[in-house]
Design a protein that fits this description.
Elements lengths: L2 E5 L2 E4 L4 E8 L8 E6 L6 E6 L5 E3 L8 E6 L4 E6 L8 E7 L15 E2 L3 E6 L1
Parallel strand pairs: 2-11
Antiparallel strand pairs: 1-3, 3-8, 4-5, 4-9, 5-6, 7-8, 9-10, 9-11
Length: 125
């Protein structure tokens, strides 16, 4: 049974940093595309950052470049999202996803792949 579990969310002041973690189990990890997504209240879910099994990273929007980075530790089956210079508009539920297909050529996981339950990030002004 595949499980994807996020952690590390919380309340932080604007300008602060948080590191989210996502651990996947029940699947081979080092051959999966992993991705971070977020959904703010009243808004659609949007992509944040993805990292492929070969280390390729994909940003969804330019606003995150220079502030957010993604990394993975295959030995721990974990992917991280480092968020710096946080803004109130970064407030959202952050979700992690794992591709269901090994060695996928997709840039990011899709809605039909494995998803976690999310971790809340709240940035106060």
């Amino acid at each position: 049974q595949v499980q994807v579990v996020e952690s590390g969310g919380g309340l932080v002041q604007a300008g602060g940093s948080l590191r989210l973690s996502c651990t996947a189990s029940g699947l081979t990890f080092d051959d999966r595309v992993m991705g971070w997504f977020r959904q703010a209240p009243g808004k659609e879910r949007e992509g944040v950052l993805c990292i492929a099994w070969n280390g390729r990273t994909t940003y969804y929007t330019d606003s995150m470049k220079g502030r957010f980075t993604v990394s993975r530790d295959n030995a721990k089956n974990t992917v991280y999202l480092q968020m710096n210079s946080l803004k109130p508009e970064d407030t959202a539920m952050y979700y992690c996803a794992a591709a269901s297909r090994r060695y996928s050529n997709a840039y990011c996981p899709s809605a039909s792949d494995y998803w976690g339950q999310g971790t809340q990030v709240t940035v106060s002004s």
